[in-house]
């Protein structure tokens, strides 16, 4: 992908050229001295870099290329530091422009590096302006390097982040290329872009949609996986037909999965949704009609395969019974949340409530279901409840919007900078009865999405009480619109 004039100075022994060319490309850009080379070196670890040079404007300009490893992500990383080092005159724009614009057009992600200790620099602004003009297709990830000391001083991380966000590329990720701090946040921001790229590439190679050709493939990388569960006769098959409409595509069985794990996939508003286990499950439920137990489909393993669980209830039964949910349904709802899945409750057969005293029955069902869900799953507020009539083909859009909304919340990733700014506000908003009881949280970071999982780093002896954790969970929900999904908060002590 490089233009003429490049030559290889060193050989990279770990990867062949073909393998490298299949990897997504991430370029590190920024004004001189922010630590681009330091970050490059950390990302490629001990592997050797390939060095390219190009005779351009009579100046030899080097760009280093290496294979980066960050968590399970592999990508091709380019360090543009050599461009400035060799240049002797002209603005940063002039120095990098001719060369970089070319490289940018073949990059998949861009790390815009700044220096936390130096703060926002006029040259950062210049780089930002240049990027907006020359690489509008890339969404730069703003990175604040040399942040190691900021973590030690209360509030300084948040105020530096505030300053950097004035560049207009969102909140920065705080890292230290020298100490390795913040690499997990960097991983979280690169992951969606790079995984999308790899999935697209493997889809291009294999039109059957079999991900097994992608070496890193695992279930967590697949698009939205939806499981429809519920007791026999609540209307799952009917709902399924409504959801699939004529877009139905049957795929599989795939390598690595059991024969009966056949997946059904369909499109909704440009998004692919997989229905987990549907084919096998449909056959089994037909055999099990009338049985009171949940089908095999609803075992823990099936639940884990799905991202979102749609639990179907029967409105007719709710009106005639005192409890809105039967034991089996309570079990499945609780289990879904315990396993960290997103839960959407679907009350089907609403057409049965039509006619006689319709509005009273509707209110009755709504209240009964919402109350019961809150009672059985007190740890998650706002689990969505959708009312439909599958028989009349009503509710497809409502169900799918709710499923997608829940999935997106479930995938939320919040940067450490943003979270720490939030933490400061939240801690001052809350008044502790006893000042001494106030937890000393040094910083707060999201370590995982799907579901969102956070770690609070607390001072040595202090510990978060259950009340503190509940308070933080509720505040996260309210402030980042994360209601209805499980959120996890862990704590670690630091000296
Ligand atoms: P480049 O010009 O952007 O490639 O910057 P370099 O990687 O050459 O780094 C410039 C200077 O910043 C060097 O002295 C590095 O040792 C220093 N540096 C790089 N990363 C960090 C960091 O995370 N923390 C601190 N304190 N210094 C760093
Ligand atoms: P499954 O066992 O959960 O797959 O349930 P089915 O989809 O086979 O439906 C069981 C029965 O409920 C069938 O007779 C359906 O026609 C009926 N049914 C499904 N959805 C509705 C609905 O929205 N309203 C009404 N009145 N009946 C429904």
From TrEMBL:
UniProt cross-references to Gene3D superfamilies, sorted A to Z: 3.30.300.20, P-loop containing nucleotide triphosphate hydrolases
Domain GTPase Der C-terminal KH-domain-like intervals: 413-492
Taxonomy, superkingdom: Eukaryota
Any one biological process term the GO annotation gives: ribosome biogenesis
Gene Ontology MF terms in the entry: GTP binding
Classification via SUPFAM superfamilies: P-loop containing nucleoside triphosphate hydrolases (SSF52540)
Alphabetical keyword list: GTP-binding, Nucleotide-binding, Repeat, Ribosome biogenesis
Ranges of residues in domain G: 25-146, 226-349
Family designation: Belongs to the TRAFAC class TrmE-Era-EngA-EngB-Septin-like GTPase superfamily. EngA (Der) GTPase family.
Cited function: GTPase that plays an essential role in the late steps of ribosome biogenesis.
NCBIfam families xref list: GTPase_EngA, small_GTP
Protein's UniProt name: GTPase Der
Species: Medicago truncatula
């Amino acid at each position: 992908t490089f233009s003429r004039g490049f030559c290889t100075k060193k050989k990279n022994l770990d990867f062949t050229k073909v393998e490298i060319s299949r990897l997504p490309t991430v370029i590190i850009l920024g004004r001189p001295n922010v630590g681009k080379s330091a970050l490059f070196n950390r990302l490629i670890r001990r592997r050797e870099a390939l060095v390219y040079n190009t005779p351009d404007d009579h100046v030899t300009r080097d760009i280093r290329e290496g294979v980066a490893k960050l968590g399970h992500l592999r990508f091709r990383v380019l360090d543009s530091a050599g461009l400035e080092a060799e240049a002797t005159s002209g603005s940063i724009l002039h120095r990098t422009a001719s060369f970089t614009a070319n490289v940018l057009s073949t990059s998949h992600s861009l790390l815009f590096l700044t220096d936390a200790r130096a703060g926002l620099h006029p040259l950062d602004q210049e780089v930002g302006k240049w990027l907006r003009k020359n690489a509008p297709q890339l969404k730069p990830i703003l990175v604040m390097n040399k942040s190691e000391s900021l973590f030690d001083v209360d509030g300084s991380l948040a105020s530096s982040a505030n300053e950097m966000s004035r560049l207009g590329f969102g909140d920065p990720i705080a890292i230290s290329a020298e100490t390795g701090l913040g690499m997990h946040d960097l991983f979280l921001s690169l992951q969606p872009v790079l995984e999308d790229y790899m999935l697209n590439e493997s889809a291009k190679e294999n039109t059957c949609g079999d991900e097994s050709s992608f070496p890193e493939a695992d279930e967590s990388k697949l698009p939205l996986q939806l499981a429809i569960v519920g007791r026999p006769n609540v209307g799952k098959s009917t709902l399924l037909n409504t959801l699939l409409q004529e877009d139905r595509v049957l795929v599989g069985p795939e390598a690595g999965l059991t024969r009966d794990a056949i997946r059904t996939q369909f499109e909704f508003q440009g998004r692919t949704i997989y229905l987990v286990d549907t084919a096998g499950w449909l056959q089994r439920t037909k055999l099990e009609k009338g049985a009171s137990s949940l089908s095999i489909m609803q075992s823990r393993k099936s639940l884990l395969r799905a991202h979102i669980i749609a639990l179907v209830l029967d409105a007719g039964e709710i009106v005639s019974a005192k409890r809105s949910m039967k034991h089996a349904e309570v079990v499945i709802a609780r289990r879904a949340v315990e396993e960290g899945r997103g839960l959407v409750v679907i009350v089907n057969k609403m057409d049965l409530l039509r006619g006689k005293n319709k509005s009273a029955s509707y209110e009755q069902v709504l209240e009964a279901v919402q109350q019961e869900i809150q009672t059985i799953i007190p740890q998650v507020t706002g689990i969505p409840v959708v009312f439909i009539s599958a028989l009349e083909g009503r509710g497809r859009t409502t169900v799918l919007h709710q499923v997608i909304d829940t999935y997106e919340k479930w995938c939320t990733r919040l940067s450490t900078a943003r979270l720490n700014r939030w933490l400061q506000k939240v801690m001052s908003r809350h008044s502790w009865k006893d000042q001494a009881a106030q937890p000393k949280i040094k910083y707060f970071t999201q370590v995982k999405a799907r579901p969102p999982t956070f770690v609070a780093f607390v001072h040595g002896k202090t510990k978060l009480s259950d009340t503190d954790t509940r308070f933080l969970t509720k505040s996260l929900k309210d402030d980042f619109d994360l209601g209805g999904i499980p959120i996890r908060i862990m704590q670690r002590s630091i000296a």
